[in-house]
Amino acid sequence: MVTIWTPDLGPFQGPKYLRLADAIAQAIAGGELAAGTKLPPQRLLADKLGVTVGTVTRAYDEAQRRGQLEARVGSGTFVKGQALALAPASGEALALDGAMAPLGPQARMLSEGLTALAQDAEALHRCLPYPQANGLPAQRQRFLAWLAGQGFALEDSQLLLNHGGQHGIHIALQALCEAGDTVLCEGLSFPGIKFACQEQGLKLVGLAMDDQGLLPEALEAACKQYRPRAIYLTPNLQNPSCATLPLERRQAILALCRQYDLWVLEDDVQFMDPAAKPQALFQLDPERVVFLSSFSKRYAGTVRLGFMLFPARLRSRMDLGLRASTWTVSPLVLELVSRWLAGGQMDALEQWLAGEMRARRQLADQLLPGLQGEASGFNCWLALPEPWRASDFSRAAMERGVRIRVAEDYAIGRLPAPQAVRLSISQPGSRQELTLALGILHQLLLEGPHLARAVL
Ligand SMILES: Cc1ncc(COP(=O)(O)O)c(C=O)c1O
Questions:
Q1: Cα R_g (the chain), whole angstroms
Q2: Could you tell which of 190, 195, 271 is best to mutate to test the pocket of ligand 1, judged by most ligand atoms within 8 Å of the CB?
Q3: Which fold has domain 94-102+350-453?
Q4: Could you read off the pLDDT of 217-236 as tens digits, one per residue?
Q5: Is the CB–ligand 1 distance for residue 239 below 6 Å?
């Protein structure tokens, strides 16, 4: 029977014939077009899609070139038996293993920002000398005004500008802890905290979590057992689990930190639509919390610029950490970014990111039901259905050209990791690539683990 299959070319980009070829690839990966299925006659499909027959011919040719279709003389065009050798046409893996900002307006922002700066001789002159302070007064003012707009009303003495989130973690641990101290964190956590603790001779202990994040009872038990100095937490879109701590749990955790006299290091580097963010721990208890964020996920990794907010009494310890590690940050980078903050470009970019991520998440939800994480986040978390193990799923995905991360990559110490994977849906260069990658994962889930993997 002829399949009157009519794809929606909307999510794909580029020339029409390539969009159709990608739609064919996605339908095969997603199981909509099974091996052996006959594709619609070219004229029929051209009429349905409102394109020329030539466009359909080119699309079928492209899909044949990719090894997904075969033309049988006199019978038509069919989905190939092993069309799932769906590695991307370029032969390069589709990467969903690193949370980075999708690229849209960033290059234009950079070009316009640098051009304006290049034409402002006075500003350039101010940025030339060896920096004595942590940012020029006007730059710090722009930061403080932008932060006030985000709900952080601060004194100048509560702000430190640094070289990004990882640098902030390093400075904070140096300021708050001494070698030999215990630091707590979520049982699955951003690996950068492991490196920083190892380097500074700190013992890192991971705590149990559920799908809303860290469990207060686990925190209380660890406070009694270890007498820790500090806790490192990612309350919004936790990396990797994508959990966001609800307000009551934030309050319960802070109450325990006050009771057991713990510093709180709040990491808010991961992107989330500002409109969707609950109150920060720092906003709830500005005397106990050190807040850190950066522009790596708000703009792109190239801007090695971050900021920390903290109680004013920590000022000299923070300054020491900054000076000991890098003296201070480049006034030129500060000038560029602080102009984006004052001029509204950064807010506009965040809105674009939130919209782009919501559109990507919609695509992901269609193919992979059950994804966890707020809709604007760069990552999603997928608890794998039985009988998949995360390591097998990741290996099988890699064999089909898709790179992902497993929970184990983030486990602290020897805590057991769940059979779950992290998918960075922000990373593919286009929604089209993302759709291909997700289609491949969807197909794997349908197939289940391969028995051929069994060993003696
Ligand atoms: C939770 C978390 N904190 C910090 C960082 C590091 O941030 P930066 O690139 O600004 O150093 C990352 C990077 O992925 C992260 O996921």
A1: 25
A2: 190
A3: Aspartate Aminotransferase, domain 1 (3.90.1150)
A4: 999 999 999 999 999 999 99
A5: yes
Cα of 280 from ligand 1 centre, angstroms? 17
For residue 99, give the ligand 1 atom closest to its CA.
14
The three-class DSSP label of residue 242 is: coil
Among 97, 170, 171, 239, name the best residue to mutate to test ligand 1's pocket (greatest count of ligand atoms within 8 A of Cβ): 239
What does the domain layout of the chain look like in residue ranges? 16-79, 94-102+350-453, 106-343
Other C-beta atoms lying within 10 Å of the C-beta of residue 330: 14
Find the 301 Cα to ligand 1 centroid distance in Å: 10
Per-residue model confidence (pLDDT) at position 286: 98
Of 3.40.640.10, 3.40.228.10, 3.30.70.2750, 3.90.550.10, the CATH number of 106-343 is 3.40.640.10
pLDDT at 155 over 60: yes
- May I ask the CATH architecture of the domain 16-79? Orthogonal Bundle (1.10)
Give the rounded distance of the alpha carbon of 184 from its chain centre: 23
Spatial neighbors of 409 by CB under 8 A, at least 6 apart, are: 191, 240, 422
